[in-house]
Structures are given as C-alpha cells and as structure tokens.
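Chapter review: from sequence to fold.
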Amino acid sequence: MTKKKIAEYQSHLQDVLDAPEGAHIAALFDFDGTIIAGYSATAMLWEKIKRREMTAEEVVETINVMAQYSTGNMGFSGLMTGAAKFMKGVTEESYFEFGEELYEKYIARKVYPEARALIEAHRAKGHTIAIVSSATIYQIEPTARDLDIEHVLCSQYEVENGEFTGNIIRPLCFGEGKVIAAENLAADYGLDLDQSYFYSDSYDDIELLERVGKPRPLNPNTKLREVARENDWPLEKYESRGQGKPVDYIRTIYATGSLIGSAIASLPIWALTGSQREAMNFSTGLFGDIATALTGCELEVTGEENLWTSRPCIFVFNHQSKADVMILAKLIRRDMGGVAKKEVRDTPVIGKLMELAGTVFIDRANAGSAIKAMAPLIDAVKIDGKSIVIAPEGTRTLSPKLGPFKKGAFHMAIQAGVPMVPIVIHNAGDVAPKNEFLMRPAKVRVDVLPAVDTSKWSTRTMNEHVAEVRGMFLEALGQAGEEDALEALVNEEQPAAKKTTATKRSIKSAPAAKKPATKKAAARKKPAVRKTAAKKSVAKKAVAKPATNRSTSARKAAAAETPKIEAAE
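The token string follows.
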C-alpha cells in the first residue's frame, strides 16, 4: 500500500477516544461489510442450498433476482419482495433458529475485532449504539446480542400468526429508509444526529452518511471511497477477516505443521538421553516459539512470574481459539499434560503426538467416562510433578465473552492437592476465531493471575470455588458488570420456581415520536424497527404476545449472555 493510500485511512477508534461523551450522540453501524466481513444473506442462501431446503426452481429464480439487482435492473425492494414470497407459510420462529445456527456456523467468525473495539469505545463514551441495516433481524440478532447492541433497525418481512405472509413491511431499511429509521430513533431517544456517527461500507448508504454530522466510511467500496475523498471524510479499512491473502494460508499451514517438525527435532534428545519427558518438553517449547512466530502472534503478558511459582498446578484458561494451543505451549513450555476432545486423537500424526505429550482425550458427551479418563492426570500431578492445562468452559467460545464453567478442573485440583493458576487470554480470537481455518497476525493480551490456594476446597463447597475462579476471569476480562446486570435482570423478570434460560421475544408497536428530528422527518412514514434490550427499564415495556422459546443452541447462549428481546414494527 502506497504512502498516499495509507494517509487516506485514518483511525476511527482514535477519533472516538477523542470524542465528547453523552447518550445524545449516536453511533450507527451498518451490518454487512461493516461489522462483519462479507454478506450474511449469502451465507443464508448457501446454507439453504446445502440443506436442500430450496427447490431447483427456487434456486434458479433466486439467482436470477440477485443478478438483476446486481446489474441495476431491479431495486432493493424488488429483491426483498422476491425473497419474501419463498417464505410464505414458514414460521418466524424457525427463522430465528436458523439465524442462531448461521451465527454459530458462519457469522460469529466474521465479526471484525476492530469493529468490536470501536463499538466498545463508543460504549465507554456513553454513546447510544444502534445497527441500521437493510438485512433482517434473523441475520443480525445473534451478533447484536454478542456485541450488546441495544437498538437494531432493519428490514422486516410481514408476519401473521407466527408465519410469514410472503409480503414485506414498507418502508424497508434501505437508502432513504435508513434515514427515516435513524431520525425516528433520534426523536424517540433525544439523539442529536448532527453530532452522531454512521459507519458503512457502501455507497447505497449515502443518504444517511450525508444526514449525520460524522460520516465514517468503513471498508468502503470503490464508489463510496471516491465520494469520501471528495468530501474529506475519514476512511478506514479492516483486513482481519474475510478472504485471506496467500501468505495467511502459508503461515497457517506452516504453523500447524510445526507441531510435527518440533516433535521430529526432539527425537535426538529422546534417543540419546532415553528421556521421553525431556524430549516432549523441548518439543513443546519449540512448537510454541515457532508457531507464534510464524503466525505473527505477539504476546503481551502480565503476571508471567505466576507461571512458575506454584508448580505443579492446574492451569485453567478461557478457550477462544485454536491459537490457544500454541500460546499455552509458549507460556508453559514444559512438564505439562492436557485434556482434549476425543475427536482430536483421530487427527493423523498430531493426535498421536498430543497423546505422547500427555494429553488425555475425553468424550464430552459422557461425563462418567470423562471423569474416568482423567484419572491418570491426577497421578501425573502427584507422582510425576506435571501441571495440567484445562479449559473449564469445555470448548471454544464464539466470542470473547466467557462461557459457563464445568467442574472437572476443580475436582482435579482437589484430588491432586495442588493450586489452580488462571490464565486469562483476552483476544486469541483475533488470531483465529472459532470455526476459522486461517490464522492472522495479532497482538494477544494474556494475564496470568496469582495461584489460587485449593487446600481448603471440598466437593461440598464446589459451586463457591467455581464462582470464585470464574469471577476472577470476568474481572480480568472486564465482563463482571455485564454478568451482574444480566443476573439481576434474570432474577427480576423470572419467578424463582419458573426460571428458564430461553430468550423471550415480545412484539410491540414502535412508540410515537414526541418530536421529529427534522421538519422533513415529520412527513415520513416510520420504518420497521426492532430493538434488542438488556436494560430492565426497557424490558418492561414489552406488552404484546411473546414468541415461543428458541432452539437448544439459543437456550445455551441465553443461559449466560442473552438479554431480553423486544421487536418494534
């Protein structure tokens, strides 16, 4: 990239850090191409085709409609109308479930970490944050929940008696419709759009970009970039997600393969000394050094001394990424064993190497067999003086948010009679989020907390110990307040005898604007708006019929993170 091109891309994050505070300032975000890389509608279409949920005729017609739209022969309204007719008679709830599955499978890993940081910066300033997108709530809601974005303004399909009618609700949240949505949000919540931000990647959003006081093109397409240059609007482009460069594939393949190379390099030590343990220690440290170097994973570690002062111990870490393996190898380096799901053992070569290194493979679906399988690890701690590395969440999370803890690591600490050392990994997902093959360069922050004394722990007080250690992670990650707010909301909204982990949705009409944001707004029809709300005062406004409970995957997410949802049409 030339110096001229570098100069035109400015840091939107620094701009926010220097901005004034106040809820009267809005931070409006487009969704596709801005918060996430690529297009959620494309993921939805391909998943339907893969599942054979569309007939050949529907596929051909859909492709034809998309081609007409892309060539300018059809407007966005025609595109949405064409999509809506295929949904007639389908339950809306099934689409919410479908959206959850799409999020877990495709969309979560497409969220730009830079966009996440930008949203957090606006939140720290007390700004009112909203997604304003032409996409539908089924594509957006899980991401909005993950990012704690309260307001979602989007296009909507018409629903009657829980089923799609095959029609759309006008005006759609596209072009001028986004301006209408933003102005009504401003009227309802006392926002000053002349002091507000709008982030978008597309020239299709030029109306709203020109309406706000602080237009911020983000990952701009060619036409928007040209307009931004003419108007001296600051630009920024993210490259941490989406289609990788050839070098990203090369670094990922070599980094993964370095596990094998490191093992081969340790063979002379094993052969000449007869010590498998020393050979594995050499291999572990070498793998951590090589893999992090190849991927450009730079570690910023605080409390590094805590890695060594209390061994043997049980190391517990929050699991976000496959990059965690190389990060932990670089940090812990020697005399370690671990736990992995049984499927990893079947990986050619790598599975065997992990077994030789002291990894125990467990069936996560069978708690009894898992406990039995981990018994040798207790002996490894007591007899061999090894430390055990385990993720109490049990699996990688889809976002930096901490998942619920399982108790296996805590039982292990009691049985082995050793301390527990928490390793808090802040942003390994920046290197490679869950379900992503590519690993990209990133600076990863790690906090190694002081050892936790487990000598007085007992199984009778296990829940207290789990809560204590998880609380340490939440505090280090800056998520303690979010958990407290969610717990208070759950306790307030649900009777003790009838608590449920499922998210509820309520449908209501958008409140009438007290005062239009501009004279022009008074003559406009209010667009479709949906709102996600985590605040108790807002949640109580829901008055109409609740939707049915979500899918199993949604219930799991709701148990720890999900706020109550409202919808406004």
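Two observations follow directly from the output. The mean pLDDT is 80. Residues 9-243+504-568 form a domain with the Rossmann fold fold (CATH 3.40.50.1000).
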